[in-house]
Design goal:
It contains 4 helices and no strands. It is mostly helical. The chain has one domain.
């Protein structure tokens, strides 16, 4: 399945959540992750959204709250 990142980037909620994650884990964030860039964050967010959509998982989208941010961080650390 191919995801259209250009369309996602036009979504204000997606951009806000992406920037929220970068404010914590980007190169100048509170808890920087080495080598992290916008593309990696966007891929991790899409992976997380897929996990939340999967009925086999018990994850629920929390409207971009701190739990969502930490779960995306976990995806980033594994990748």
């Amino acid at each position: 399945m191919t995801t259209n990142f250009i369309a996602l980037r036009k979504n204000p909620a997606f951009r806000e959540f992406r920037n929220y994650i970068l404010s914590f884990y980007g190169y100048d964030g509170l808890y920087p992750i080495a080598g992290l860039n916008v593309g990696k964050v966007e891929v991790a967010i899409v992976d997380y959204i897929k996990m939340c959509s999967d009925p086999q998982n018990f994850f629920e989208w929390g409207d971009g709250d701190s739990v969502d941010r930490e779960r995306v961080r976990d995806i980033l650390e594994v990748a």
